[in-house]
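[step 3/7] fold_predict: job queued, chain A
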Amino acid sequence: MKLRIASFNLENLSARWRFSETARAETSAAMSLTDIIHPKEREVLERTMALVIEDDKRQMTALALAEARADLLCLQEVDSLRSLEAFFANYVHRSCDVRYGHFALMPGNDRRGIDVAFGARRDLLRTDAVRVTTWREATFADLGVFDPELAAFGITPRDRVFNRDCLTVDLDFAKASMTLFICHLKSMNNGRDDGRRATMMLRRAEARAVRRVVTEHLGAGWRDENWAVAGDLNDYRELIGPLGAVKDMRPSGIDVLFDRFAVNPIDLLPPHERWTHFHRAWSAEEERMREEHVQLDYVLLSPALAKRVTAVEIVRRGLPYRVPLDPRDPDRSVATLAVKADRYPRVGWDRPKASDHCPLVVEVDLAAAAD
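[step 4/7] structure written:
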């Protein structure tokens, strides 16, 4: 029995047109060009614009999911179960010949209300074969991961450790079983030169907590069980620079998940292919534009299951044209990037796009692992 497991950050799949008094980035650029100053008129205009942009974007998000052809979905940045089900009914199922169900989402700890979620092929499992557990209430003390250095962030041992959750999904396939641990760790605050360093302690504590959850949930034989830690872990261990130069970026906030614990199947790909996210921004520290291809999205496998990997795929056709799909290519000019690579219809230079992340798909032979 082969299973395709996908992790995908959907980038603000939300029924809300803004998360706070500040407009979402999708509408703020265009709104800056208007001279409408009456608050109610601006609100109506921004809501209308947000709906139009969302429709364009979600058609591409749906195409990325259709191309992934996953059996099990580990999703991030989902506003609510209602939004998720509406998205699949009205977008994904119009683009894809697979029908999904078994959706699960538990409200987590994110201040914006974006959560992690699960979905699976409808015909893959019985309704009673999916059991979901949330760890949103777990504290640093509960999971034994409090570090005095965290006090610098004003954190106490009784605070919740997960910025979102470590949603645990136990699956019963009758002849085999599997457990998914779906995560979305603390962000690096992109745009700040010191963002990764400044937040690394928080991700390190979360990663240690994930490891503790796995071992507690599965018991002493965890190495031999079928499980995966999947999601946007918001850190990387290597960086692919211009011309495809690979730089070791350890220590990383997620190193504990690799140290005699889980296996990263993306390592089976050539070095220049090991990325799911592209970041380009001005570095005040270096006084230059910095470009980075990195892996932020993971499907980390148990030692037993890692031996049964049959394919690793990264879906990149939903990325905007500004993203160089081959880090080794020296020509980053607009004239080249705008026409060079394969994209979905209506993808733009910067937006619209499917997401700022790529779906990562790992295929495993679960039946063989159960033998």
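[step 5/7] annotate
Residues 39-68 form the longest helix (30 residues).
The chain has a mean pLDDT of 93.
exit 0
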